[in-house]
Amino acid sequence: MKLLILLHHRFELWNAPAWLAPRLRKEFPELDIVHLDDYAGAESDLRHSEILIAWSLRPEQFSAATRLRWVHSPAAAVHQLIFPEFVASDVVLTNAREVHGPVVAEHVIAQIFALAKRIPSAVKFQQRHIWGQEQMWDAFPRTREVAGATLGLVGIGSIGREVARRAHSLGMHVVAVREHLDKDTPEGVERVFPLSALEHVLEISDYVVLALPLTADTRTLMNAARLKKLRPGACLINVGRGPLIDEGALAEALRGRKLGGAAIDVFSKEPLSADSPLWDLEDLLITPHTAALTEKLWERHYCLIQENLTRFLDGQPLLGIVDKQKGY
Fold first, then answer.
1. Which of these CATH numbers, 3.40.50.1980, 3.40.50.720, 3.30.70.1170, 3.40.190.10, describes 2-98+294-314?
2. pLDDT for 41
3. So where are the chain's domains?
4. Mean of the per-residue pLDDT values for the chain?
5. 101-286 — its CATH code?
6. What is the rounded distance in angstroms from the CA atom of residue 233 to the CA atom of residue 248?
7. Of the N and C termini of the chain, which has fewer Cβ atoms inside 10 Å?
8. Calpha distance 69→134 (Å, rounded)
9. The whole model's pTM is what?
């Protein structure tokens, strides 16, 4: 049985480290494991592989990979793999959502504190050598406490659950929106609302965190009308997918000084172009898709891959299975 690791990305951390394949070969000597860091010339290996670890796969490559039984994405987002031929197939798709959840949740908490304590403003004053105590206090919104504030979680999957637990421990009131209400309420969440009640959650939340997958229904979920539903001084945080937000509408909302601020880690087009007007928005904290970055990333990936390979070879259910019809 052949396992093909086929990962190619301009960002070094997203590429499989050199130790991954040798370590897997030692753990699973019964597998023929090939590691390629370039798609050029990969057709032969794809054709003979039952298992594939990859970010993406083109329809024509999938058509040639007739032996494939399982594809694993080291990302949480899998929309780049959701094309009709693959969705209609019996090939199992898994992702690494549980790998990224705790790390991204830490980033969300950092963003909440940064917005509440107006840390970006303090940095700007420091760069200009200005003692900005009065200016920061007179700004809208003023610096505030996190404890007692209401956090509205839009999406309570692997990231949302970890955010809820941490926010609750800080004394925040956590409410959430989810598509399926028949699932258990995660730790730290006081109440779960259906997606149809999104506007209500926006109206009662001091901080709104987007942690949703990208689907046809969630694209530009936060449009101009919904941004107007946010209470004055509320803050918006996006660690889900860039297209969840209408970025033009967000810019207008921030310029209108109704929002207390926004912290965005993901964008519709990445890298964000140097001439994007988002860079110059006064109350927007931009992080360059760094929420999931950690030096422990590939060790965590290895643990998940190792567990799932063991399950696959034993005929047991895999962890992190993606519903290809839903796209998450």
1. 3.40.50.720
2. 86
3. 2-98+294-314, 101-286
4. 96
5. 3.40.50.720
6. 19
7. N
8. 62
9. 0.94
Q: Enumerate the active-site residues.
A: 241, 270, 289
What is the 3-class SS of the chain, one letter each residue? CEEEEECCCCCHHHCCCCCHHHHHHHHCCCCEEEEECCCCCCHHHHHCCCEEEECCCCHHHHHHCCCCCEEECCCCCCHHHCCHHHHCCCCEEECCHHHHHHHHHHHHHHHHHHHHCCHHHHHHHHHCCCCCHHHHHHCCCCCCCCCCCEEEEECCCHHHHHHHHHHHHCCCEEEEEECCCCCCCCCCEEEEEEHHHHHHHHHHCCEEEECCCCCCCCCCCECHHHHCCCCCCCEEEECCCHHHECHHHHHHHHHCCCCCEEEECCCCCCCCCCCCHHHHCCCEEECCCCCCCCCCHHHHHHHHHHHHHHHHHHCCCCCCECCCCCCC
Per-residue pLDDT of 244-259, as tens digits, reads 999 999 999 999 998 9
d(C-alpha 107, C-alpha 104), whole Å:
5
Question: Is 182 a residue whose pLDDT tops 80?
Answer: no
Residue 303: pLDDT above 80?
yes
Q: How confident is the model at residue 304 (pLDDT cuts 50, 70, 90)?
A: very high
